[in-house]
Request: fold
Amino acid sequence: VAAPGETLRKDESGITCIKKCIHSIVEYFLLAVEKDRRKSLYAVQTERQEQARRSVLISCPARTNEKKFLKYLSRHGDIKNYFFYESYGVYAVVEFANQESVASLLEGTDVPSISHESMVPFKSRLLSLKNLGSVDSPKQQLGKQCQSQTTPPINELIQRLSKEESIDQQVTSLTEAYQLTEENSRLRFLVCSLLSDIAAAYFPESIIKPFGSSVNGFGKLGCDLDMFLDLDGITGKRANMPQSDLSLEYQMKRANSERAVTQSILSVIGECVDQFGPGCVGVQKILNARCPLVRFAHQPSGFQCDLTANNRVAMKSTELLYLYGELDPRVRCLVFTVRCWARAHGITSSIPGAWITNFSLTIMVLFFLQKRSPPIIPTLNHLRDLAGPADQSVIEGNDCTFVSDFSKIQLQNNTETLEQLLREFFDFYATFAFSKMSINIRKGKEQNKPEVAMLHIQNPFETSLNVSKNVNASQLERFVALCQESSWLFQQSETNTPRGGKGGNTSTPWGLAAILLPSQVSGVKSRKRRKREPASERIKSLLESLKSNSQQKQKKT
Ligand code: GTP
Ligand code: MG
Reply:
């Protein structure tokens, strides 16, 4: 009997052979179970939404006695899960085992009595704990550590990575430090659930769902919370089978276009969030954007929120990115590393502008992984061909069909390490023919650019669109120059030699840590450095260029 992956030596006793076989068979099945355990994004979302509905968010005084707090809350039912975190004070997320416990808790919650101000009587599951009793001794206070909801600062990360012993370990360590934690993920769904309660005042069957990096597997701690108001529960309802000659339908207001409906709904919900939403501040309605949205900060969670509606294509892109991230662990690790590298060098920014976005960057990583030999991930067209009848999806005339059953996807045997992939990524884009070619993950092959654009990345679902239309020449040049620099650094022996060791206190940045350090290339000016140029200098050069332009014009006439 030869178990998979086992070599049996001739001198081994029969019992050892059998033990080895059993061990291998058990491992084989555990692996199969693990593979099957990969849930679809839909299943993950449903579970998290349900969890969020049974949860409350409580602001706690700094000196809260954890035991007393839990005992007090358990009067309303069993607590299934809880954690504390800090954001403008200490907060607790408490998940009850049953929904009735939340109702009972709210029943016993007081309305604040304030003398100098008036308040908006909107009750939500965002509460404050009041401690009327004696102050507890520090020993009795919060036993559970407050969970960190942010990534470590870049200098700390560089120090941490420098202590790792291989580039592969550095990439894994970066991913672990950056990825969303279980708690942060719960908090994101809870914020969506709290906002759903506001939207439900007008649209009881609607639900607010997270999308983008909060759920696609590529989100880092501190990333924004993209949400969309899903009204499909109302508008998507099919007509009932006729029971008689008569039937009833709702009278509904009509508008000129779907966009106009989306704008008016977002305008009203945005107003409610602004006027009634506890903890929601700085509400901005950006209704004339290509994708209308309401932007605000949710103070208790510290999340920057973007609320959209009728944004089903974005939900599909989220599902697609999630699927790619789940197919092979190297996908997420590489995306996290490239995103972090890009942020460290100012290639991406939190402010909208001519820079490459994280979404574009992620597609560039996926494209690179499709171009490996053999490919690490399949093309989108292949995923479409594997789709079953239930996966068919056409949104606003765009084919958004792709397989949802992971087990149907056969991967090829590519054994490249994270270190190899990272080096090759920089080489690949340092020499990519950006001037002529477009990046296309549908085909997994570069295509001739269909239109003039500095960087052309085909939108996976709205195929006539370019997701990086905003990128200008200087931003693309910086990206290429930084890829060249990082590729060069990786060829240097001092970059490749571990120079720290776990035990040491100080370690010299090497490997991944070295390429996160500020750029040394003189041509790669950072935006910040450019900003520091005195205003007088900038005005002088502007005047000079205007002068030379007008001189040239005069010559021509
Ligand atoms: P970070 O917020 O930067 O962490 O990443 P993100 O993936 O969440 O990006 P962002 O918040 O900018 O956008 C949210 C989601 O909207 C993305 O994940 C995409 O699904 C979608 N999206 C963003 N930009 C584009 C674009 O240019 N075209 C299309 N079709 N979808 C986009
Ligand atoms: Mg986002």
